[in-house]
Amino acid sequence: MEYEPDAKQNAAGLTEGRLIYTVSAIMRKASDRALAPMGLSVAQTPVLVTLRDEGRPMMITEIARRLYLETPSVTSMVDRLSERGLVERIKDPKDRRKALVALTRKGKSLVESVREPGRQLQEEMFGALDGAEREALRTLLQKFRDANLYRLD
After folding, report:
1. Which residues pair with 92 in a beta bridge?
2. Which phi and psi (to 5°) does residue 56 adopt?
3. Is 2 left (phi over 0), alpha (psi -120 to 50) or beta?
4. pTM of the predicted model as reported, rounded to 2 decimal places
5. What fold is seen in the domain 16-116?
6. pLDDT tens column, 22-46
7. Going by C-beta distance under 8 Å and a sequence separation of 6 or more, which residues neighbour residue 57?
8. Number of other CB atoms surrounding residue 37 within 10 Å
9. What is the CA radius of gyration of the chain?
């Protein structure tokens, strides 16, 4: 299904917040479609990517903090990923009362398999922008993020 831009949506008066919301929805939907063949959602993938990038088991609260999510949401995602054998809970060797989350071999393989499709999707979606525009967008989004992180507390 192809969407035609609505003249009202192209109006100069569209707020920054509305644009960010719309772009975010487009990114989520496109990402979910790209991840669906692998049985992943755009919500679950950042948990796997965070564990891969960190290269060590992590506490759920730490994953939640890194992803700017609530701990119960990450716990639910970890439960679903665990049911699929992509992550496992292990005892913290420093404090056996605590559990850490680690990628399984299957999880490592799957998270690596999303790297190239993710890169291709980024290229497709941001292909309308030249290099300088992409860099400017990255700079503006980072500035916006950094100026508003305190709102998450």
Report:
1. 95
2. -155, 160
3. beta
4. 0.82
5. Arc Repressor Mutant, subunit A (1.10.10)
6. 999 999 999 999 999 999 999 999 9
7. 51, 90, 92, 100, 101, 102
8. 9
9. 18
